[in-house]
Write a structure and sequence with these properties.
Helix content is 59%, strand content 4%. It is built from 16 helices and five strands.
Length: 419
């Protein structure tokens, strides 16, 4: 792949204006007539959200995206994500180009840059939320967004390492509306490429001390932050796999697992740019707390999508989480409720017969039990609570108003999405 230019980038933003949690912000217990999740009311935030066309916007007193003079108007999340892609895609491609063949091709396929035959395509590489947080955190520390690029690239590399391995462990055959890498190139290549992407993340951060403008001390701090987040991510994934073999899991255990599996890397992304820009530990810690709670809100929405999301939108298998008997937040909350629907759900999950072979009708009935036991509504409310707590942590960090509004807009986007 070295030296070859591929079409595509980090991926298109999720289409706003609709949401797993429904258009326009219904109450935490509302649901769309179609049966898809409807939005948990996020309540008052630092900025009022509205939708316009295909973009998510947040009203802002000062709203610039790419730098320059601040101006009044809404913040466009798609513009934020597109800025991230423009800044991070070239160094991300350069990092992937370091891999030996055929790993470079496997990685390029996974990122959506080529098809299975190596032909360049304009693919969907994901939402780019984590690298966008890294760029914003550099700006929060008073540096230009470019100072956070190594952090954005590194966190994206580690994130995709986890996706490659996750697809294989879960047996998922589709991601982002096409065949997963392990089904195309084999399990061994998926494992090796995932490992390679994780190590590339560290390389990119260390390179920031020589070519990215960071001090050697700050680059080392960033490496430690990313490696700690990676360990937490792996801890969470190990818990998730173990939970599939258990009949019940408590809500507290589920939150601990999701704090590692998902929140750890969002937490790192929210602070990496600031650390590379020389921010002190107080600023870094507050940004990490913001990312931790935003990550839990993100995963709560993901858990809802994993049961009630539409496959044509999410690009993931229908009823995938239920088929694997994952103990996600809606399931854990439903099991804790203790009523008739909760008890029937517990009996079904404890029955080894038909594990992984349930029919669509059986899985739909199981989803209804989760909803009747309150698991869906509780998870919607938890997403709102974590979102509010994340914004409170953000208030601890002094930063330009325009940067704060961009953080708020991105946080809103995380919980108001349909994929």
């Amino acid at each position: 792949m070295t030296g070859t230019a591929f079409a595509g980038d980090l991926g298109e933003p999720a289409r706003a204006g609709t949401h797993p949690l429904g258009p326009g912000g219904a109450t935490a217990t509302g649901r769309a007539e179609s049966g898809r999740t409807t939005t948990a009311s996020l309540g008052p935030s630092h900025a009022a959200r509205h939708h316009q066309g295909e973009g998510t916007y947040v009203e802002s007193r000062t709203g610039t995206v790419g730098g320059g003079t601040a101006h009044a108007g809404p913040v466009s999340v798609p513009e934020l994500l597109n800025r991230t892609r423009a800044l991070c895609t070239p160094p991300l491609r350069a990092a992937v180009a370091r891999l030996a063949a055929p790993m470079d091709m496997v990685a390029a396929y996974h990122f959506g840059w080529i098809d299975r035959d190596g032909t360049p395509v304009a693919g969907d590489g994901g939402k780019a939320v984590r690298p966008t947080l890294a760029l914003l955190s550099a700006q929060a520390a008073g540096a230009p967004a470019e100072a956070g690029v190594p952090g954005g690239v590194a966190v994206e590399l580690v994130h995709n390492f986890s996706l490659l391995h996750d697809d294989l462990m879960d047996g998922d055959e589709t991601r982002r509306h096409r065949a997963t890498a392990w089904t195309v190139f084999g399990p061994a290549q998926a494992i090796l490429v995932g490992d390679a992407l994780a190590t590339l993340g560290t390389e990119v951060l260390l390179d920031a001390a020589t070519a990215g403008g960071a001090s050697p001390t700050d680059a080392a701090r960033a490496v430690r932050l990313l490696n700690t987040a990676s360990r937490r991510l792996i801890d969470g994934q190990a818990m998730d796999v173990a939970f599939e073999q258990r009949d019940t899991v408590t809500v507290a255990e589920c939150l601990e697992m999701e704090g590692g599996k998902t929140a750890a890397l969002l937490s790192a992304g929210a602070a990496l740019g600031a650390v590379l820009a020389g921010a002190d530990d107080k600023v870094s810690d507050s940004l990490q707390r913001f990312g931790d709670h935003l990550g839990l809100a993100f995963q709560a929405v993901d858990d809802l999508l994993g049961i009630w999301g539409a496959t044509e939108v999410t690009g993931k298998p229908h009823w995938g989480d239920l088929r694997q008997r994952k103990k996600s937040l809606p399931v854990a909350a439903a099991l804790a409720e203790g009523g008739p629907a909760s008890r029937e759900l517990a009996e079904q999950l404890a029955d080894p017969k038909g594990r992984g072979e349930e029919s669509e009708t059986e899985l739909a009935a199981r989803a209804l039990l989760i909803e009747q036991a309150g698991g869906r509504a509780w998870t919607q409310e938890e997403a709102r609570r974590q979102h509010t707590t994340a914004l409170a942590a953000l208030d601890e960090v002094p930063m330009p108003d325009v940067v704060r509004e961009h953080f708020v807009a991105l946080a809103e986007f995380v919980v108001v999405r349909e994929r």
